[in-house]
Write a structure and sequence with these properties.
The chain is an alpha/beta fold and 142 residues long. The chain is built from six helices and four strands, in the order βαβααβαβαα. Helix 1 packs across helix 6.
């Protein structure tokens, strides 16, 4: 199962979700991306790395990349951090593609780049990733 996590800049929420899920499900093929390309090639935002590291989650090896239409073919499931990200993802969906794209949580994961609440975002991401595992187990393999 190949899972892609997507947020706006790929320096806070989506790499954090990738890192959390790497610990919970190391057997999955995981990646993260951003709908915007401002930070391509950059590591996750320092304060997010610090907050994750305090929980035993290492993000330093990750680098930001931009989400693209090819990701619909490369992944079995695409997970957005908020409704705007999901809308931006769907706008890039190739005709006829049926790769599931959904939100990580029932409500938007607030962007800690703006809120500065890195621990609050990580709390929500950790809870939501644990729930996501049950959902993934129920998905048919493509």
């Amino acid at each position: 199962m190949r899972v892609l996590f997507v947020c706006l800049g790929n320096i806070c929420r989506s790499p954090a979700a990738e890192g959390v899920m790497r610990q919970l499900a190391p057997h999955l093929a995981l990646d993260s991306a951003g709908t915007g390309g401002w930070h391509v090639g950059d590591p996750p935002y320092g304060p997010m790395q610090e907050a994750a590291r305090s929980r035993g989650i290492e993000l330093g090896d990750l680098r930001a990349r931009k989400f693209g239409a090819a990701d619909f073919s490369a992944f079995d499931l695409i997970i957005a951090m908020d409704r705007q990200n999901l809308s931006d993802i769907e706008a890039m969906r190739p005709a006829g593609n049926d790769t599931p794209a959904r939100l990580l949580a029932e409500k938007d994961v607030p962007d800690p780049y703006y809120t500065k609440d890195f621990d609050g975002a990580l709390d929500m991401i950790e809870r939501s990733c644990a729930s996501l595992l049950a959902d993934i187990a129920a998905l048919p393999l493509r």
